[in-house]
Amino acid sequence: MNKKTKISLLAVMAIALILLFIFLNIGNNWGYIVPRRGMKILAIVITGAAIAFSTVVFQTITNNRILTPSIIGLDSLYLLLQTFIVFVFGSTSFIVMNKNMNFLLSVSLMIIFAGVFYKILFKKEGRNIYFLLLIGLIVGTFFQSISTFMQVLIDPNEFMIVQDRMFASFNNVNTDIITLAIILLLATTLYFLRFMKYLDVLSLGRDEAVNLGVDYDYVVKRLLVVIAILVSVATALVGPITFLGLLVANVAYEFMKTYQHKYLFLGSILIAIVALVGGQLLVERVFTFSTTISVIIDFVGGVYFIYLLLRGNK
């Protein structure tokens, strides 16, 4: 089976699941149900595309297939920001109530953080991937500790506002920012296209890329900004999904059997859509909303992560 056939197969599966999700048990309430399910599907597609895209780029930059952008603390930073806003200004403040303002503030802070993180980790010689992993875990844990400290001090009713943003769920998608998310996603994609040609070379490693004429520091710095925007878009829409990127990127590597990023991007995005729509169907039709899709994805992703670690030791 060649690569185009595999992409076509994934596209058919994604479209079939989307149609099943929209029209299953719809009855005579087309006018009420279709727009709502359509917005949910749109959020799923945006989230899946952003997470899959950013994870493949991040793994290419770091040259490691068991890492996701969450390792540098972007998810923890988002939760810290949301907790801090509620802790300081209250749940009825303008920043909390105005979702577009909250979204733009989150994106800006995560981009600034990614830029500072890049300067610290990649500027000096001798800093390797293990240093990135160590600092990322420390920073993420530090952010989580501060968030937990503030969460135990705030009013229980206001903690419910924070709790809604701690776990990814497509049952309460932030539809108010979908238009803004689409604009940001398209603008980021257009900006990214100028760096697309470097990814196949970057996957060879830093030294090989430099020897082949790539301005490594310049390209990687801008790709980190792209990753920060994509992660913040996905996180602000539905909340943090830790293992989704790891899962879909590695399945795409195994299924596509290629190093060419044009196929890896398409494959990982379609696999993410299949996983999210299929998972949401399970949540709604099998588990009857007794759990969230993030629980299912984190469970499957966690098992797959252990499998990757065990396979790497052989």
Automatic annotation (TrEMBL):
Membrane topology field: Multi-pass membrane protein
Subcellular location: Cell membrane
One Gene Ontology MF term: transmembrane transporter activity
Transmembrane parts of this sequence: 6-26, 38-57, 77-96, 103-122, 128-154, 175-193, 223-251, 263-283, 289-310
Xref: InterPro entries: ABC_BtuC-like, ABC_transptr_permease_BtuC
Signal sequence interval, chain numbering: none
GO BP terms in the entry: siderophore-iron import into cell
SUPFAM superfamilies named among the record's database cross-references: ABC transporter involved in vitamin B12 uptake, BtuC
Primary localization: membrane
Keyword Iron belongs to the record: yes
Family matches, as Pfam families: FecCD (PF01032)
Any Gene Ontology CC annotation: plasma membrane
Superkingdom of origin organism: Bacteria
Keyword terms, alphabetized: Cell membrane, Ion transport, Iron, Iron transport, Membrane, Transmembrane, Transmembrane helix, Transport
Recorded family membership: Belongs to the binding-protein-dependent transport system permease family. FecCD subfamily.
Protein name: Iron ABC transporter permease
Highest classification ranks of the organism: Bacteria, Bacillati, Bacillota, Bacilli, Bacillales
